[in-house]
Amino acid sequence: MSLLVVEGLRVGYGKVEVLHGIDLTVAPGEIVALLGSNGAGKTTTLRALSGLEPVRGGKVVLGGESLNGVKAHRITALGLAHVPERRRLFSPLTVEENLRLGGYLIRDQAAELKRRMETMYALFPRLAERRLQLAGTLSGGEQQMVAIARALVLQPRLLVLDEPSMGLAPLIVRSIFGIVKRLRDEGMAVLLVEQNARQTLRIADRAYVLESGSILIHGAAADLALDPRVQAAYLGGAAAA
Ligand SMILES: Nc1ncnc2c1ncn2[C@@H]1O[C@H](COP(=O)(O)OP(=O)(O)OP(=O)(O)O)[C@@H](O)[C@H]1O
Ligand SMILES: [Mg+2]
């Protein structure tokens, strides 16, 4: 059963419609990739799911509950965690303070919050060594780890990631994708927006290709990696072996 069901989603800015009726689903224990070139509408899709852009048409349902018109903080409380493009950390605050802010919904449960933060340090040992370092002084990879850890403190049902690999070295990307796989294997639902199609299709279970605000192709990630249209547009024309 799908955790997230999106049907006919329409979103726009001003007079311009950017998403022209998107259908997609994500189930617990699967990584679903949303691929597409610059300006296709990937970030807009994620922002609409999180309540950061108004839904103009269609429906968004999480765990049987409609998210249409629901405020962003309430959607977070319902179990959707969004790691935005470019990370958006609180740079003048420490790693520890960033994680604490991520757990704001349980801030009055000190012991539980502390326990969850320790879980995050176990998942990201590099952050444990740097808990008192200011987020703005971390490397790009470490900042991405903080952004993901901050989203995980509330133990979401659906993790939505907007280009986590952006600007990172291949080794760090592998490490972050490794964490994403581990979360999936533990039963989390993951919606992953990426431009790095080759690596993404290797870790994803299913994928959708968005072009100019419409889903062009969708299917099993392994099949998409062999699709000539995907190879030509997103894999540099080469086989994705
Ligand atoms: N706040 C905004 N106001 C007006 N237009 C916007 C706004 N945000 C995005 N757009 C437009 O909506 C379209 C889709 O943008 P979006 O950021 O969703 O694309 P994307 O697929 O995430 O691209 P990228 O890969 O570059 O991040 C683009 O044409 C963009 O210019
Ligand atoms: Mg984007």
Layout of strands and helices, then pairs:
Elements: E1 4-13, E2 16-26, E3 31-35, H1 42-49, E4 57-62, E5 65-66, H2 72-77, E6 80-83, H3 95-102, H4 110-123, H5 125-128, H6 140-152, E7 158-162, H7 170-185, E8 189-194, H8 197-203, E9 206-211, E10 214-220, H9 221-226, H10 228-234
Parallel strand pairs: 3-8, 3-9, 6-7, 7-8
Antiparallel strand pairs: 1-2, 1-4, 4-5, 9-10
The structure holds adenosine-5'-triphosphate and magnesium ion.
Describe the structure.
The chain has 241 residues and is α/β, with parallel strands linked by helices. The chain is built from ten helices and ten strands. The longest helix has 16 residues, at 170-185. The site of magnesium ion has 4 residues, from helix 1.
> What's the average pLDDT?
94
The description of the largest β-sheet is: 6 strands, mixed
Oligomer: single chain
CATH topology category name of the largest domain: Rossmann fold
Could you give a short description of this structure?
This protein is of the alpha/beta class and 241 residues long. The protein has helices at 42-49, 72-77, 95-102, 110-123, 125-128, 140-152, 170-185, 197-203, 221-226, 228-234, and strands at 4-13, 16-26, 31-35, 57-62, 65-66, 80-83, 158-162, 189-194, 206-211, 214-220.
Structural key phrases:
alpha/beta, Rossmann fold, 2 domains, six-stranded mixed sheet, four-stranded antiparallel sheet, 10 helices, 37% helix, 26% strand, binds adenosine-5'-triphosphate, binds magnesium ion
